[in-house]
Amino acid sequence: MPDFVAPQVDVPALTEVLDGPHAEIRDLCRRKLIEHAGLLDDAQRLDRDGYRERVLQTLLQLTDAGATTLGFPKRYGGGGDLGAAIAAFETMAFGDLSLLVKIGVQFGLFGGAILQLGTERRHDRYLADVVAGRLLGCFAMTEQGHGSDVQGLQTVARYDPGREQFIIDTPVDSAHKEFIGGAAAHARMAVVFAQLEVGGAGHGVHALLVDLRDRNGRLLPGIRIVDDRQKIGLNGVDNGRIWFDRVTVDRENLLDRYASVSADGVYSSPIESPDRRFFTMLGTLVQGRVSVAGASVNAAKVALTIAIRYADRRRQFTGPNGTEELLLDYGMHQRRLLPRLARTYGLHFAQEQLVAEYDDVFTHPDTADPKRRRALEARAAGTKALGSWLATDTIQACREACGGAGYLSENRFDALRADTDVFTTFEGDNHVLLQLVAKGLLTNYASEFNDLDQLGMVRFVAGHAVETVIERTAAHSLMERVRDLLPAGEDRGDARTGLLDPSYHSAMFRWREEHRIDGLARRLKRGAEDGMNAAELFSRCQQHAVEAAVAHVERQVLEAYEQKLASLPDGANKTALCQLRDLFALSVIEADRGWWMEHGRLSSQRAKAITREVDELLRKTRPLAVQLVDAFGVPEEAVHAAFLH
Amino acid sequence: MPDFVAPQVDVPALTEVLDGPHAEIRDLCRRKLIEHAGLLDDAQRLDRDGYRERVLQTLLQLTDAGATTLGFPKRYGGGGDLGAAIAAFETMAFGDLSLLVKIGVQFGLFGGAILQLGTERRHDRYLADVVAGRLLGCFAMTEQGHGSDVQGLQTVARYDPGREQFIIDTPVDSAHKEFIGGAAAHARMAVVFAQLEVGGAGHGVHALLVDLRDRNGRLLPGIRIVDDRQKIGLNGVDNGRIWFDRVTVDRENLLDRYASVSADGVYSSPIESPDRRFFTMLGTLVQGRVSVAGASVNAAKVALTIAIRYADRRRQFTGPNGTEELLLDYGMHQRRLLPRLARTYGLHFAQEQLVAEYDDVFTHPDTADPKRRRALEARAAGTKALGSWLATDTIQACREACGGAGYLSENRFDALRADTDVFTTFEGDNHVLLQLVAKGLLTNYASEFNDLDQLGMVRFVAGHAVETVIERTAAHSLMERVRDLLPAGEDRGDARTGLLDPSYHSAMFRWREEHRIDGLARRLKRGAEDGMNAAELFSRCQQHAVEAAVAHVERQVLEAYEQKLASLPDGANKTALCQLRDLFALSVIEADRGWWMEHGRLSSQRAKAITREVDELLRKTRPLAVQLVDAFGVPEEAVHAAFLH
């Protein structure tokens, strides 16, 4: 490395590429992060109550500045721009994450639910207050007994036609709402998800507006709230548990875009199928997963910025020339950090596509094709899962790569790690989400599956339709097609030929995806034919479902890289991003090479050549590494690691 | 699973197997954990100063009860039993880990250094006070500028023959001592590691006793200490930074087992080679790594106890029969938890062997063969690395497997995760330790390497001897021998034949280890022959060195399983442990199957068969899982997860 003229990246131009269509909003948020950077210190200094209050006040200031409500219609004081709203949220993820989650709860979940599940009358009544931060709310979906299985939740909202009111109850202790951000201190109102009962008939889960506190912050009758107190992280968010004891709300408090109840107690909905209705309602809340995905990727960027800058100045162990070597010149250190850098860039580009699609679909919600909406939901689920695991894994690797210094809270990994840890769980457990993605992949083969549950394959496998679906899969022909795409490099003697050919990466990723989906379908079919107990069959197929989904999302990430590269002019930045794309693609193949070898798509010679090529790419990327993290554009005040100053 | 008569484990008998030779001590510590269980709550409740004080008071109470000083000679009030000391330390790792680390600092590091590096005169003067907890101390080795590279540290101790004193200085700011447990508040004295200079000549790193505070806790002249304040975890330990400004200590404060300075300034040492002297001194401190390894494995046990019990009672998603399924009946959930359970058992047995060897070597320090000491040091380094990664990985997997509930501090993962995180870093960064192990493996091939540095291969590669060593390796013949051991299952048609044959596991593990060492040696040789820059060569070989070391340690774990099994009578417990051993062995092979396939030791058919066998083993282990964690014998009061009550 020392005798080498370091190649250059045009950092500002690369930041422009990364910032994409909402660069102005991102820059506004960067300025806000700088302005409120004191919060990162206060987070360590204040006690829990003080920290919560500090977060709330910062939220209100940002709201005044218009940085948190870009997604609401202009007529209620919002910005009328969904894409910009996500861009702002992602950028704020460079800073304190309690603040971010508090913003997400108030505007994404609480305000978002009113916007998406309510009709104009509710919008007119509440949204201006929500957008102005005058009405603080929470989103009471999760129960202690039911987290990812939303359809199973047990809180009841029973219609009483005599009083023209709903009576809301927590029927058993485990049905209390759990982990509700805002509930413990600040929320005056909640969107409560409950099983709706009208005239003795159950209509499934619906959302209602329920007052929790009066204007003085006192709990209203029938409401019991217990503070969740200390959590691993996000302690600036006031999470709590809520029990309802015969709490009454007016009939119009039912958010009625997808269902309403007449005064005399007749239930009606524009969507006949209860399952489809449920999933349509949930589908409107996809913004939460899109937001968490973006926040995860940006938290990973902060960690990489710290660890790579540190590794480029920290020297340890004397080399042969008598001076101590930089950590980043050690091959092992490159292995620990640079493939994660490449993956972070890839997930950034995948996230950019997801946001564009979300913006497009939700800006014209009534004309959007239902299939496109489902594809968006699956994409959001998959990107959230891989993005949040990226964050957990990358932050941990970066902490360890900074040694003992990384363990001091002043060097930022403490908060980053603790706060993002729950991202793998909230907005849907990653393993559950990936099963949702896998189910979507199967249904692509058989459209009649569209109306089945989306939250797990238990019901899917248990359903009667298993056999029909499987029979219709076109997996085999797809696989044949993909096989033909594989380059002939394997046969041409040199195992390294074509390893950097993007069409090779693409063919490998596609083949893995298709083969895994096909394998999953065949397993399900075989099990069903053998009369295997459905629960047992599901249990046995779960790992395969998750693996198929991971292959699918990684293929999307690779394609996002490709499409971004296709849009760029030639030059140093494109060359650097091509290199990162190669590093991402080959690292994925290297990590999963056993699978490709098992399935005859990779020879042992070529597998070894891939490892050599990855090593070569690491050495080529090393001199660019600091510039590549600089291009993320994390403001210095948000990097906030004492040992870099 | 439901139609299945669950097999049984004899839990008390299995606990006896796990507790091994020091069962009484372990039970004493369990009682102490119960007695002091309030500390786990106080850790969350108290502020930092209060928590530190609470930890100190608990340490003193445990010391009065004789639970912390078993490793010191009886004549100073200790228990005279090194193995028992480690057993006690490991057991205390079920409880609050700040307390554990505080015990480790006071008795293992501070007291241990006086014991190992001092001679009788020092022992007589200090050890009774140390053992009684009257003299609190710290271990000032690490500097901000030099962590794992101890030989590079810069604090200076210069002998002044006029005053017959050493003058201790922090020559540059980055040479301040960093992360010193006990320094910020409680320690009155420090064992300070410094470069010894006598008469203008440097003699390398030596340890001296330095007073930090007077009896009233006031810092002495020339001592500056800054509190490290908040850390990711272990906030009950008062870590701090120390600067020395012309601090003088008497001549006899040099710990003089391996070196002394006469009044008129003549340096002498029983060990002539400075390198060998340095590594001999460090080698006597191996107890720290042995202790951290054991603590790591036991912290993983606590996490598994919580997550597996939770998964055996938590139901989520309605199955086909209309009831909700237990988490532990899901194949994916088994995949997440049970291979880690098997690995934890394996590392427990490996740790037991390590402790026995440590006990044996250090109980008779003067007769121990130097080779055996070096083997012990390598074993401690490797077990510490794999043990601490096991803890980090297992605790995180368990947290995620408990979903949002796992994120609440009251459910224990918060402290477990945060406190153990630094175990991968302290007592030597894991990556550095594994390179030390790898170097040991190379030196086994060429005994003249024994005297080279042990802390990294930079110096090794840079040395002149590279070629000679490599020429002498006997790797090839070893590999041939191992190849013959491989069973013929591959050829016999059925890919599953012999997968549960322990000799198959053993042959696979050994072959991987030997082949990786050989590959590493060949790479070093080739690079040296090609005249590659030594730093570059080292950088390129680092990953291979770490992989060789991991293969070596995993082979030791497998053998520890084997040896334990060989000592057990037939019966349900032995059957269960055989199953866990199979799960451990096949999970390792499955995870690394790409490597074995690349090297022609595994066919694609057999690789797939291994995955099927792992799945089968998971299903067989599932009904035993709760009993297998019960057998760890973590007291209920130490499990301390609110959601299990």
TrEMBL record, chains A, B:
EC numbers for this chain: 1.3.3.6
Source organism superkingdom: Bacteria
SUPFAM superfamilies linked to this entry: Acyl-CoA dehydrogenase C-terminal domain-like (SSF47203), Acyl-CoA dehydrogenase NM domain-like (SSF56645)
Subcellular location: Peroxisome
Essential cofactor(s): FAD
Domain annotation Acyl-CoA oxidase C-alpha1: ranges: 283-442
Keyword Flavoprotein: yes
Xref: Pfam families: ACOX, ACOX_C_alpha1, Acyl-CoA_dh_M, Acyl-CoA_dh_N
Acyl-CoA oxidase C-terminal domain mapped to chain residues: 506-642
PANTHER family: ELECTRON TRANSPORT OXIDOREDUCTASE
Family: Belongs to the acyl-CoA oxidase family.
Protein name (Swiss-Prot/TrEMBL): acyl-CoA oxidase
